[in-house]
Amino acid sequence: MLSTMQDEPLSLATLLKYAATFQGDSTVSTWTGTGVRTMTYREMGAESARLANALRGFGIGVGDRVGTFMWNNNEHMVAYIAVPAMGAVLHALNIRLFPEQLVYVANHAEDQVVIVDGTLVPMFAQYLPNLKTVRHVIVANGDASALQAPEGVQVHSYTELLAAQPDTFDFPVIDERSAAAMCYTSGTTGDPKGVVYSHRSNWLHAMQVCSPMGMGFNGSDNVLAIVPLFHANAWGLPYAALMSGANVLMPDRFLQPGPLLEMMEDQKPSFAAAVPTIWGGVLAGLAAKPQDISHLRTAVVGGSAVPPSMMRAFQEQHGVRILHAWGMTETSPLGSVAHPPAGVTGEQEWEYRYTQGRFPASVQARLVGDDGSVVPNDGESLGELEVRGPWITASYYSPEGGVIDPDKFDDGWLRTGDVGKISPNGYLTLVDRSKDVIKSGGEWISSVDLENAVMGHLAVAEAAVIGVPDEKWDERPLVAIVLKEGTEAKAEELRDFLADKFAKWQLPERWTFIAEVPKTSVGKFDKKRLRAQYADGDLTVTTLS
Ligand code: ADP
To answer: 416: Cβ below 6 Å to ligand 1?
Structure first.
């Protein structure tokens, strides 16, 4: 028996129409360094129509890829909704990829148009001659004439192009399973791989972001989107904002702690999202120059593990609740979110908040052991996390059709490459990425546990731990420490600090003090580069006896 329900597709065109009308007074604002430039959702609706008309004028139709090479700003937000709403596919390019990777992903996705920020034109100009499928470049917030067009490519000024377009467009409602947007993994552990989101997956995911079990933001929030729009589907923030009518605050290129704090002082966002390294910088900025940031009711932090010391510092010193979440480009990205269960308080509540979070009903999760069998969710047994659900990718994009690599997929489940445990009530605690776990004498040492613990030392600004070859034990941990400015700490002292938190055999003997932990294109610790620095003999290592 079929239901009597209407078979209405979940469509980003419908979302745009809704936001531009019933939430028309909500705003997107971009920080300029001294203030904001603001557009209402109503204005965004008209701007989206102008952009869609311009793209249609270039011959862009359903399924064609439109790239962006932009900071988080008003124009990027317009592209984020207008491109999928017209049936085309948004491809937000990661501006921090290595040149070969950037060229690879734009060619692999076959981007036909790229919208580029004026300030990024000099960088983009280096790539453009190698982009094989790009026919049109639109320069926003800058001088289009500064970009030399190779033969066969036309360069346009965003402002001039859009000024000539009608401000209505008949956005088509297409099959909800159609491609809406694509994103490549940032290549932290390999070549970038393409994930294609559908209208349906983005719609359902946005509902989860809005839900109290997700990020839980609503129409009275001012959401500061620090996470780049090119990182992991922008964590779902743009579509969730349109759905909830939240105001959005975009930092543009002002991403250093100082300017971020100035913007917060001026704009008082109530909600923010960024990776831990950003928040580490913000904490240091606040220590140097105190400021009240208690207007932030919640900051969602994920992408890598959040050190408990960082969570406590934000809560206890600044009244800001850090909400820890786990996800991947492949999972749209929201997987689990660390809301503690009802009724827990005190230290027990903190223990829940430190976890990577609880899975929602739409994300099924299981752990698989080395022998391929499923291990129990008993809060102790370790295994590789596998997930499935309506906003989790079933393959990687290839022009010839989705690629289902058995290393990455297991009988309809996505293999995450993350190792952890799941409690009987559905909370995930990650131990490590499988590639980062340190295998010492047949036992595992979690690099993340060591990092989290040592970052609790008052002198430590950042710490990254990698496994390095060892004759006797196969691998041993090497701790790379960045000290806070004006502080001192010796390796012995730091090891003593860890002594009551780890078994003796887990305590690292190798230490190195560095000026900065290398970061990936999305601001995570780049352990691949750290390993290479060690292998090349670039690190001065102290070995304790
Ligand atoms: P990349 O794989 O290129 O870094 P993603 O941002 O998609 O790009 O990375 C997803 C990975 O980030 C996850 O598989 C996991 O290893 C890590 N990750 C995400 N959130 C967390 C978290 N809260 N704690 C620990 N690791 C996390």
So the answer is: yes
